[in-house]
Amino acid sequence: MSSAEVEISRTKAWLMAARPQTLPAAAAPVIVGTGLAAHEGVFAPLPAVMAFVGAALIQIGTNFANDYYDAVKGADTDDREGFTRVTQSGLISPEQVKFATLVTFALAILTGTYLVYVGGVPILVVGLVSVFCGWAYTGGPYPLGYHGLGDLFVFVFFGLVAVTGTYYVQAATVLAEPLSTTIPTGTVTREAIAASLPVAGLSTAILVVNNVRDTETDAAAGKRTLAVRLGYRASRLEYTALLALAYVVPVWLWLGAGFGPSVLLPLVTLPYAAMISRTVWTRTDGDALNPALEQTGKLLAVYALCFAGGLVVP
Known about the structure:
Helix content: over 70%
Distance between the termini: 58 Å
Largest sheet: none
Strand content: under 5%
């Protein structure tokens, strides 16, 4: 094999480890938070861009950490039906994946220094906790994903925190002085929290599909995800409830919070969501659920674009 072919193979392996197909979970909250900021007249482009860079780095760092720790803890085996994991398959050494995890999280913290300048101490705390939990999802003495807390982690950090944080740094840029030690007035609003719920629900739904697919192998490896604890039926009910949350919130924003009817634009994705749900409710194999996993990620991305667009329209 030529050196060029080896290099291409390693590049593909690193892309597999980074799992770019999961980046909608990083982009969606920034898109929605920015759409709401534009609606509220506090849009600030540079904080929005830096929020996305930071969120993407945390997502990739978490993916690297999952790849490494699931392999060394024995959760990833040859029986796994999911996408190829580079540590378990031997494509990249465990030491290199662990080092990449540390570097990526370090870059996320470095990127966050600008956001700390803009948003002050609240963003410093949120950023450090986010990085720590990204590592603790599968690492550390009490890995969250191994004890049924993964769904809660995703709901909070890739939904509530990510959307409200994106809105916060833009609002703080417009409404407050740099390096604030408290939460400035008008930077964390009821509307921002409400807008975060659909993203939280759909981001968590991605994880539910992943865990439903891996229920049998995770149980055998002692990885007690929420899907392992709940079983197939309750996990599918969770998936349905998370999707329902995403479609209830725009209706509430329209009827109960004074937003215009354009906020209902995400409802155009409802037939696509129903199609994916049908697969999740009837299949447990990787041949069906791997596509459903990617489709839920696409649903999140399209929903976020529609939601943000509906918020921006006067």
